[in-house]
Amino acid sequence: MNATLELQPSLARQANDLARDLARPEPRIYWLDLAVTASVTWLSFAVAATSASWAWTLAAGAVCVLALYRGISFIHELTHLRRDDIPGFHFAWNVLIGVPWLTPSLLYEGVHILHHAKDRYGTPRDPEYHPLARRPPHELAVFLGIALLAPVGVVLRFGVLAPLGFVIPAVRRFAVARASGMVINPGFAREDFDRANSPAWLAQEIGAWLWCWTIAGLAFAGIVPWRVVATAGAIFALMTLLNQLRTAVAHYWENDGEVMAPLDQFLDSVNVPPPALMPYLWAPVGLRYHALHHLMPRLPYHNLGAAHRRLVEALPPDHVYRRVEQRELIPALGDLVRRMGRKR
What we know:
The chain is mainly α. The chain is built from 15 helices and no strands. The relative contact order is 0.15.
């Protein structure tokens, strides 16, 4: 038997024994975090889009990028939250963040959960896996650079494909299968077409379509200044680039496409725990504990830190759990580049 298969039950059992009481999400934390994050996002965007001072514009723009990134990152929590865990939270997030930034939760719900499927992780059927460590280094530049095209992508998806899809079935099938998922696997296609006919999906899609057309119409009519539209596009592009940088170091990306043993899936993921401080900005809403999340997917983001501390205190320093840690973003990127440069 593979040694990692022998170790997995022990690690999974220890983690669940130590953190089982932390599995319940706290609604007050979610609601307060969303309210503050959405408020900071929209206030900083208003300053960035209207200020006569370039200093204020740049400062407010930087704040907006980070706040929007935190807000968009909640889409990950939505995929693991049952709707009765925090009633109304999915709807509120889509109204405050998802739909107006053309990133409704339909782009992640039904997709991300496949990344956690034990028989899919790291294989060609995984929507969120790309074996970067087995690719030449220049592919990292392409991987990061393509994120800057995200504003164009979401406008095409909801401003063009959405309305066309409602009258042309072939366009609709393409839009659902190939343009309705936040994925990094270029070969992935959605197959859950029934979900695309659900009231929640249709409400989000139509809402994003109408929002997109409304802003475009107001801009062409001269009611909304083009500077506002350009500022939104720039902020969204930089936010997506930041997320792509974080994604590049979320895993070790070493798998060759074969089904992996459960512990190997854990070891292919990354934690960036304290004392590092910057992950509060570039890996928000619990994303700094990505490996722990793969070990306990139902653990809410606000309890991941406590669960990590319990594991560190209970397990020996040389335990396999500590092997997934990285110090910070730049060192982790450097490690990825070095591994990409090896001959395969």
